[in-house]
């Protein structure tokens, strides 16, 4: 059983407006991410972590059938949201065998990619399955239950990349060229709108 944690607590400081609420193809980026989760193999185990701009973002997803958690420590950085998401997922589903970390600003993540991550875990017997794009490995990324302790120990700005780099021999990959497209600036958003 795999859980999906959608990390959406950041303040979008470089953008100047909550990226979670940017519209792409008729939905906000966070609504798209949630729909991907709810139509994926993780559909029964989706947790969304909110932080900055919580009330403005929460009202846009109030009709979504997902478990939403507020991270009061969001200013610490990504690690606080990963810790909270992992702890909440383990609390909700003690028999969980893995979790996938996903961001809301990679609009081309789809249910097939989520499935490919879980399948690669079964086929390869690696404890970490990361997406590869533009010469790097990153999110979405699956962590086997044997890494839950490490997820719960992350600090500050640390994210999934720290564990991917720390355990290179236990990492399998899934090619996801469109993973390079994420939304950090208004220029990124303008480019996305043309796709």
- Low-confidence stretches are none
* Strand tally: 9
What's the number of domains?
Answer: 1
The largest β sheet comes out as: 7 strands, mixed
Relative helix content: 25-40%
Structural class category: alpha/beta
State the name of the first-level CATH class: Alpha Beta
Strand content: 15-25%
| CATH fold type | Spore Coat Polysaccharide Biosynthesis Protein SpsA, Chain A
Average pLDDT confidence is: 94
CATH homologous superfamily (4th level) name: Spore Coat Polysaccharide Biosynthesis Protein SpsA, Chain A
Distance linking N and C termini: 34 Å
**Order of SSEs:** EEEHEHEHEHEEHHEH
Pfam families: NTP_transf_3
Organism: Mucilaginibacter sabulilitoris
InterPro entries: MobA-like_NTP_Trfase, Nucleotide-diphossugar_trans
Protein name: Nucleotidyltransferase family protein
Keywords:
single chain, 195 residues, alpha/beta, Spore Coat Polysaccharide Biosynthesis Protein SpsA, Chain A, seven-stranded mixed β-sheet, two-stranded antiparallel sheet, 7 helices, 33% helix, globular
Explain what the structure shows.
This protein has 195 residues and is α/β, with parallel strands linked by helices. The chain has one domain: Spore Coat Polysaccharide Biosynthesis Protein SpsA, Chain A (Alpha-Beta Complex). The chain has seven helices and nine strands; from the N terminus they run βββαβαβαβαββααβα. Strands 5-4-1-6-8-7-9 form a seven-stranded mixed beta sheet, sandwiched between helices. Strand 2 and strand 3 form a beta hairpin. The chain is globular, with a radius of gyration of 15 Å. It starts with a strand and ends with a helix. The relative contact order is 0.18. This is Nucleotidyltransferase family protein. InterPro entries: MobA-like_NTP_Trfase (IPR025877), Nucleotide-diphossugar_trans (IPR029044). Residues 5-166 form the MobA-like NTP transferase domain.
């Amino acid at each position: 059983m795999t859980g999906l944690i959608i990390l959406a607590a950041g303040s979008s400081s470089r953008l100047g407006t909550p990226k979670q609420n940017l519209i792409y193809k008729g939905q906000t980026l966070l609504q798209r991410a949630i729909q991907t989760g709810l139509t994926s193999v993780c559909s029964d185990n989706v947790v969304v972590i909110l932080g900055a701009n919580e009330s403005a973002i929460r009202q846009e997803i109030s009709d979504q059938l997902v478990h939403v958690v507020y991270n009061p420590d969001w200013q610490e950085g990504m690690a606080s949201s990963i810790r909270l998401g992992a702890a909440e997922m383990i609390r909700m589903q003690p028999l969980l065998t893995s979790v996938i970390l996903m961001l809301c600003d990679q609009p081309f993540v789809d249910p097939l990619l989520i499935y490919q991550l879980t399948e690669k875990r079964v086929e390869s017997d690696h404890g970490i399955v990361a997406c590869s794009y533009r010469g790097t490995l990153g999110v979405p990324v699956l962590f086997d239950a044997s890494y839950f302790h490490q997820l719960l120990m992350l600090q500050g700005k640390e994210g999934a990349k720290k564990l991917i780099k720390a355990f290179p021999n236990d990492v399998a990959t899934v090619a996801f060229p469109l993973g390079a497209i994420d939304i950090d600036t208004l220029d990124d958003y303008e480019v996305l709108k043309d796709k």
